[in-house]
Each structure stands twice: as structure tokens, then as C-alpha cells.
């Protein structure tokens, strides 16, 4: 089996799974309990929070645990929007955001908020000048992803941070789910970023765990109320085993980040060079200003799902861009936003690499691609 769908989810590290099992079986007290088992759980919870904060260069008081990226995006969009109603009801998100952001924005629109979608250029990067034109006196929140999940374009977070430097009343949210441990932290978690969302299973942690960075002093309404956990910002009994495993996975992935970048860049470069040799292949990703591990392409005239299943027959696993919307059968929203014709956008498939992949797998992929390409000749 060759797994090339790491942007959808990653295989948990054995060390992270071992941590999960150990905590779940030995430290199973509720952190909210007053007895010694609860205190033991609280100590581990706060140690995990501290480790994550230190790895990101932030304070532990700025890290809040969630169930993952989707909850985090929903929380920030809705929580900030309602918290800042007295100052305005205008929100800007890019038109290439993950559905967790885009659908949250559309829901807010149905609740009386005004939403503008910042356009991107033909390569998939937010147009900062056009974003600037959308800003109004009543704009309260801007949300831009760090790395696009469909094509891997690294968004100009620093330029947007500079744009917002003299606009302290506007909250700036970054969806960092596809960025963390893949590109340098400083490129997406600038001093101007007020909120950022993360998901454990994207960096070899376990599913159902994530966290949100909330800059000290920034206000947000809770999405979940009840027991008052997470400083009364996110009520529900903490997934302690998952949180501890997340801290372990983040540390291991950060330690391997340089090796990850070097190795995936090398593999991506070879894939790109070889795929470009085929006349009916269109490339949607590039090397410069793109994440090192994501490469999206299509075979003209062949729908993406056909290509995905063709590779699956050879036990090679890729995806049709966003895993969260692939089963819906919609073309990649990012490609449509880039102005790519719908019929061509529907051909898109995504390879997403990891340190677990190697050159022998890339060679096998390319050998298999040649077979599939020939088989689709009549369709093309």
C-alpha cells in the first residue's frame, strides 16, 4: 500500500498512540474533580497545554482545546462575530476557505451579518489589494487560511498582517490546520494574528482533538456552555488522553519539520517534472510559495474520482482535493475561485506527501500513472 493522502489525515505516531493508551488507562480522572485523581489529570492537562504553547512560541494561557479544526473554525467565526456585534457586523473571508470557515460565514450571513469573500488570483493566492478594498469601518473579523488544503498555496499572511497593523479593531483569524509542522510557524502565526485553529490528526496525532490559539486580551463568545472548562470558554470534559497525545505528536512533528520539508520538496519536484511531460495533464500546484507536500493535477477529460479509484486498484491512495467535500462530487472550490473552468476543475486530484513516503513509492506511483494515463486515452 502507498498512502499519498496525508492532507486528509495522517497515520498517528506509535508514540502518540502509546501516550493515548497510557493516559486513558492510568490517568482517567476528570480534571474538574476535586480529589487527587482529578488533580493528577489537571497537572497533565496543563503540562500538555504548556508544551503546545512553548512549541508555538506562545503562552499556555492562549491555548484552548477543542475537538478539531472544524469546531475551532466554527467557534472563532461565530464567537468573534457575536462578541463584536456592538462594533459592527461585517466579516471578510477568502473565497478559497475550508468549508468549516465558509459555511460558518454563510450561516452568519443568514443571521444578519454581512459577509464579503476576498478574491484570489489565477494561482490561488489572496489578492491583498482587493482584500484591502473590502475593509469597512464596521469590519470586525477577517479569516484567511495559512495553507490552502486543495492546492497547497501558502497565503500571504504577513502581507495581510501588515495591512491590518493600523487596524486593531479588526480581529484576524488564521486557519492553520494545513500549515502547522509543514511550513515555518513564523510565516502564519505572526504577532498580528489574533486567533488560529489547529487539528491533531493532521500532524500524526489522534482524531477528535484540536486547539485554538487566542491572543491574550482578545474576546470571544463560547460556542459550548456548561461546566466552565477551558477558562469558561469551551465547556465539556476534556479529552485528556487525546490532548496528551496531541502534545506528543506536535513535538515529534516539529522536531522533524526540517527533514519533512527537504524530503517532501524533493519528491514533489520529481512528481511535478514527470507529470508535466504528459500533454493531457494540467498542473494546479507549483513549487514556489506552495506547501512542499501538496501537488494537485488533473488529466484532461477524466474526472478526478475516476483517477482516484484507478489508483486504488493498485493500492495507491490519493484524493480529489478536499477530503471534507470529496464525496459530495463538487469540483474543487479553490480552482473555481481561481477562474478555472468547471469541467477542468472536476479533473483535479491531490497528492499529499509525508516523511513516511520515499522515492521508491514515487517511482511506483509514476509507473502506475503511466498505465492509467494510457487506459484513459479513449476518454481523453
Automatic annotation (TrEMBL):
Domain of life, source organism: Bacteria
InterPro entries in the record: Aminotrans_V_dom (IPR000192), Aminotrans_V_PyrdxlP_BS (IPR020578), Cysteine_dSase (IPR016454), PyrdxlP-dep_Trfase (IPR015424), PyrdxlP-dep_Trfase_major (IPR015421), PyrdxlP-dep_Trfase_small (IPR015422)
EC numbers on record: 2.8.1.7
EC main group: transferase
Gene Ontology molecular-function annotations: cysteine desulfurase activity; iron-sulfur cluster binding; metal ion binding; transaminase activity
UniProt-listed PROSITE patterns: AA_TRANSFER_CLASS_5
Required co-factors: pyridoxal 5'-phosphate
Cleaved signal peptide residues: none
Keywords: Aminotransferase, Iron, Iron-sulfur, Metal-binding, Pyridoxal phosphate, Transferase
Domain Aminotransferase class V: residue ranges: 2-365
Similarity annotation: Belongs to the class-V pyridoxal-phosphate-dependent aminotransferase family. NifS/IscS subfamily.
PANTHER family (UniProt xref): CYSTEINE DESULFURASE ISCS 2-RELATED, CYSTEINE DESULFURYLASE FAMILY MEMBER
Protein name: Aminotransferase, class-V, putative
Source organism of this protein record: Streptococcus sanguinis (strain SK36)
Taxonomic placement: Bacteria, Bacillati, Bacillota, Bacilli, Lactobacillales
Amino acid at each position: 500500500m502507498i498512502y499519498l493522502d496525508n492532507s486528509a489525515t495522517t497515520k498517528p505516531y506509535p508514540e502518540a498512540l502509546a501516550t493515548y493508551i497510557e493516559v486513558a488507562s492510568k490517568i482517567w480522572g476528570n480534571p474538574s474533580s476535586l480529589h487527587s485523581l482529578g488533580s493528577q489529570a489537571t497537572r497533565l492537562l496543563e503540562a500538555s497545554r504548556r508544551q503546545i504553547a512553548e512549541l508555538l512560541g506562545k503562552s499556555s494561557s492562549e491555548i484552548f482545546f477543542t475537538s478539531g479544526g472544524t469546531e475551532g473554525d466554527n467557534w472563532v467565526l461565530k464567537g468573534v462575530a457575536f462578541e463584536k456585534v456592538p462594533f459592527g457586523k461585517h466579516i471578510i473571508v477568502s473565497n478559497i476557505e475550508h468549508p468549516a470557515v465558509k459555511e460558518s460565514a454563510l450561516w452568519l450571513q443568514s443571521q444578519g451579518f454581512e459577509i464579503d469573500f476576498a478574491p484570489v488570483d489565477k494561482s490561488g493566492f489572496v489578492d491583498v489589494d482587493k482584500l484591502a478594498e473590502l475593509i469597512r469601518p464596521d469590519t470586525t473579523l477577517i479569516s484567511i487560511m495559512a495553507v490552502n488544503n486543495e492546492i497547497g498555496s501558502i497565503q500571504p499572511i504577513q502581507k495581510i498582517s501588515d495591512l491590518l497593523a493600523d487596524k486593531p479593531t479588526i480581529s484576524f483569524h488564521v486557519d492553520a490546520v494545513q500549515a502547522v509542522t509543514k511550513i515555518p510557524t513564523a510565516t502564519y502565526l505572526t504577532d498580528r494574528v489574533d486567533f488560529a485553529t489547529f487539528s491533531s490528526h493532521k500532524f500524526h496525532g489522534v482524531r477528535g482533538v484540536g486547539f485554538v490559539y487566542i491572543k491574550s486580551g482578545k474576546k470571544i463568545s463560547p460556542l459550548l456552555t456548561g461546566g466552565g472548562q477551558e477558562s469558561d470558554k469551551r465547556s465539556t470534559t476534556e479529552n485528556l488522553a487525546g490532548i496528551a497525545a496531541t502534545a506528543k505528536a506536535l513535538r515529534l512533528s516539529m522536531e522533524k519539520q526540517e527533514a519533512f520539508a527537504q524530503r517532501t520538496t524533493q519528491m514533489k519536484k520529481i512528481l511535478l517534472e514527470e507529470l508535466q511531460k504528459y500533454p493531457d495533464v494540467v498542473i494546479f500546484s507549483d513549487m514556489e510559495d506552495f506547501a512542499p507536500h501538496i501537488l494537485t493535477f488533473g488529466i484532461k477529460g477524466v474526472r478526478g474520482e475516476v483517477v482516484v479509484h484507478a489508483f486504488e486498484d493498485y493500492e495507491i491512495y490519493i484524493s480529489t482535493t478536499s477530503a471534507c467535500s470529496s464525496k459530495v462530487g463538487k469540483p474543487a472550490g479553490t480552482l473555481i475561485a481561481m477562474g478555472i473552468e468547471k469541467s477542468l476543475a472536476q479533473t483535479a486530484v491531490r497528492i499529499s506527501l509525508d516523511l513516511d513516503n520515499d522515492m521508491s513509492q514515487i517511482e511506483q506511483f509514476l509507473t502506475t500513472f503511466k498505465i492509467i494515463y494510457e487506459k484513459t486515452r479513449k476518454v481523453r
